[in-house]
Amino acid sequence: MNRRVLEILERNGIRITEVYYCPHNREDGCECIKPKPYFLREAAGRYGIDLSRSYVIGDHPHDVEFAENAGAKGIYVLTGHGGKHTAELKAEWPVAGNLLEAVEIICGTSESAVSTPREG
Ligand SMILES: [Zn+2]
Questions:
Q1: What pLDDT digit, counting tens, does each position of 51-78 carry?
Q2: Contact yes or no for 70/37 (Cβ under 8 A)
Q3: pTM of this prediction?
Q4: Neighbours of ion ligand 1 (CB under 5 A)
Q5: What is the whole-number distance in angstroms between the Cα of residue 64 and the centre of ligand 1?
Q6: How many Å lie between the centroid of ligand 1 and the Cα of residue 75?
């Protein structure tokens, strides 16, 4: 699955340096499952990434918490699972309608500003 996604991205000029994934279940009590910051810190150490200038875009509250726990910035998107968890969002979290809007928030070109209306 990852290989297929990487091939499609590469054909469109986007190169992903590395893919991290947690193979565990939440009950396993591992150190790498989101929202624990393990993989962000691992990538930051390996590639010299400044997490304070980095973003995590995700469709689950754990993705935004993952960012916060590592000192990065999180953006919640309403696509994918995003619509199911709107009641769990914190008021200060940026919310984007889709991936493009998340990019616009990062680039400072968002017209809908950082917060969009949400339920819950
Ligand atoms: Zn894990």
A1: 999 999 999 999 999 999 999 999 999 9
A2: yes
A3: 0.84
A4: 22, 24, 30, 32-33
A5: 17
A6: 22
